[in-house]
Amino acid sequence: MEKIRLSKLMSAQGLCSRREADSYIERGWVFVDGERITELGTKIYPVQKIKLDKAAQAQQLGRVTILLNKPIGYVSGQPEPGYQPAVALINQESRFHGDQSPQQFSPMHLKGLAPAGRLDIDSQGLLVLTQDGRIAKQLIGADSEVEKEYLVRVQGTLSQQQLDLLNHGLSLDGEALKHAQVSWQNQDQLRFILREGKKRQIRRMCELVGLKVTGLKRIRIGQIKLGDLSVGKWRYLRDNEEF
Asked: What pLDDT shows up at residue 61?
């Protein structure tokens, strides 16, 4: 049996992200088979038992995840010239009035808050922003199978064969796409359910079958629905919710 880097194993087991793992190891917050590990790069066997110190567990509990209904015109992540990042919308005044979380807003909740998945500047809908590396890995990790659901308004005609291609058979960037679930919602709107998130994937998929996207809205990620969350408003992910 081959030894594996401890931080990689911690991430694979969903304990935290690799970056967080290195931070915890440096602080002496990681135990392997009861022994405190403080040296970065330590390798262990996959069968060995990893445990986090209570301080690391407390830090994780204090991290927040925010659900935002992103408007068109905001970028998900790093700001671009002339455009603001979605995180700029998060403040006390823009909190959704129907938020049922008891969490009190604090500016500290903006520190390290990062999008877990893209939503293009000309798209709107559910965007997840989180301080928790475990949730980021769950949603955008290489092996993530979490569904993302979209309503997509289109122009053009679509044959049954082309609809079948949208469901399975298209490639982007030289790679075959995973099976999707694509169906007509109404006369000019399609419903897409994907388990991956390549850059501008839906728009590019539609182009390949001769459709032009005129509107795109994400309405669900895993078990979390956009629901009645207003455009530009946000709420906290509650303790009893999971993706």
From this structure: 67
Tokens (6 digits) for 138: 């769950």
Helices 160-167 and 201-208: crossing angle in degrees, nearest 10, is: 150
Interatomic CA distance for residues 69 and 89, integer angstroms: 10
When the pLDDT of each residue in the chain is averaged and rounded to a whole number, the result is: 92
Among 33, 120, 132, 164, which one carries the catalytic annotation? 120
Q: What is the pLDDT of residues 6-47, one digit of tens each?
A: 999 998 887 887 888 999 999 999 999 999 999 999 999 999
The first and second tokens of residue 31, run together, are 């135990």
Query: 23: which residues sit within 8 A by CB, 6+ positions away?
Result: none
Contact 152, 216 (CB under 8 A): yes
What does pTM read for this prediction?
0.79
Q: Which amino acid is at 224?
A: I
Six token digits for residue 166 = 């949208």
Q: How many CA atoms lie within 13 A of 38 on its CB side?
A: 3
E strand or H helix at 65: strand 65-70
Helices (H), the chain: 6-12, 18-26, 54-61, 133-140, 160-167, 201-208
Tell me, yes or no, if 188 is annotated catalytic. no
Q: How many Cβ atoms are within 10 Å of 80's Cβ, its own excluded?
A: 10
